[in-house]
User: What shape does this take?
Amino acid sequence: MNSSSPSSSTPQPASSHPAPSDDVVTVDVRDPTDTPPAPPGDMLPGTTRRVAVEMRLLDQNDRRAEENREFFRRRNMCVLNLVSSPGAGKTTLLQRTIEALAAEVRLAVLVGDLETANDARRLHRPGVPVAQITTGGTCHLDASMIARGLAALPLDQVRLLFIENVGNLVCPASFDLGENRRIALVSCTEGEDKPLKYPPMFSSAHAVVLTKIDVASAMEFDRAMALDNIRRAAPQAEVFQVSARSGEGLDTWLAYLRKLLRAPSSE
Ligand SMILES: Nc1nc2c(ncn2[C@@H]2O[C@H](COP(=O)(O)OP(=O)(O)O)[C@@H](O)[C@H]2O)c(=O)[nH]1
Ligand SMILES: [Mg+2]
Assistant: This one.
């Protein structure tokens, strides 16, 4: 455990143990009282209904996020939160990014999914600590999950932390994790209009990455229209176009990261 994790009041993970075959750590933040959703229909006698008190939850999250931000600032860590729908290419882009940067700067990764440590295994390489946060039914990472993930990682000298959020174009937009930059990915296989349909995810992003441009023409994807939609939904964001498969556009993306690393962590 890392004794200087963001909050000493942060509850310890229900389970935090190294996977037997590699150095990937799994931090299980599932709520044991959560039950898997059942098909809709009449409530059975004796079942209970959960009512989410969203405002209070978000206030609490914002406080935790501030603690995380302070933790990152003290350690001079630059933290990127990657958000997108499932399958937009977050893990693949991170794989390419880590390959390119691991020799230059000390990196770490927190990756969230409902189940499995598949992405953590894909991202792990010697010298790059990775923790998989398994959320059970929760469709986003929140600031306290990040604090628990941080506590499971050796963070000495880590300068750049990537957070791969749970794949979801809605909920992660509401949860500040204390990150320096939020990066929204949208792929050429999702259609041109996703930025217009899911505005909060794009209006809250510092950068938008259009991914899988290698398959744009095969998908008859209208890139000009998609870029126009991105600019309308995220006029504040820097926009990148990449293919993690062919490598096209990766240089510009990596230049953006290197520039971030040259800036003080509070920016
Ligand atoms: N053609 C193509 N496929 C990609 C690219 N990036 C990711 N993929 C594929 O898209 C699928 C989902 O990618 P993944 O990185 O797991 O997405 P995530 O769920 O956002 O982490 C995988 O089959 C990847 O191989 C890309 O740049 N080009
Ligand atoms: Mg992934």
Remarks:
- Residues 84, 86-92, 167, 211-212, 214-215, 243-245 surround guanosine-5'-diphosphate (ligand 1) (CB under 6 Å).
- The radius of gyration is 19 Å.
- The chain has one domain: 15-31+58-260.
- Residues 16 and 40 are 34 Å apart (CA to CA).
